[in-house]
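Predict the 3D structure for this chain.
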Amino acid sequence: MAVPPKAVCPTCSKNFDPVKARAASSTSLGPFCSPRCRQVDLGKWLNEEYRVPVEDDSTEEGRSSEGGEPS
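Done. Predicted structure below.
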């Protein structure tokens, strides 16, 4: 007997079967257990609660402060 695949929702940490979640929804939910968890995650991105780390590059800052095009 095959064991159904299990996944953990990144929003609510609930264990769920992604195959059943996909079948219950008209759209792909990605790694989320429900449309609500997907919307909560989107809201966090839009409210800037999640951020992508960026390394400061001193040469890039120097170019932007000069105001001209790099040669």
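The domain at 1-50 is CATH 3.30.50.10 (Erythroid Transcription Factor GATA-1; Chain A).
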